[in-house]
Design goal:
Radius of gyration: 13 Å
CATH architecture: 2-Layer Sandwich
Number of strands: 4
Order of helices and strands: EEHEHEH
CATH superfamily: STAS domain
Number of domains: 1
CATH topology: Transcription Regulator spoIIAA
Structural class: alpha/beta
Largest sheet: 4 strands, mixed
Shape: globular
């Protein structure tokens, strides 16, 4: 189960994710993004995220592509995103 906390940091809205994120949690995060005004700068703080699956990883990669900043991203998640991007480019 993931805990989602929303806060403001300067001009950005920060969503802090804590715990294990499941596919249904991705749907909730996307819903929360949709509640933000169009053009709002969004940051995902992943410092306390403990485990992700492949679907969540694809969501995080999509967030990066949509200019959502991943803050405090654990190295294993960054490496996995990079590996997935390399795989998709080869296909």
């Amino acid at each position: 189960m993931v805990i989602i906390e929303r806060s403001l940091s300067g001009q950005a809205v920060v969503f802090r994710l804590s715990g294990r994120i499941e596919p249904e949690d991705v749907t909730e995060v996307e819903r929360l993004f949709g509640l933000e005004p169009k053009g709002q700068v969004i940051t995902l703080d992943l410092q306390d995220l403990t485990l992700v699956d492949r679907e969540t990883l694809r969501f995080l990669a999509k967030c990066q592509m949509e200019n959502i900043r991943l803050e405090n991203c654990p190295a294993y998640i960054s490496d996995w995103i990079d590996a997935e991007r390399g795989r998709s480019k080869q296909q």
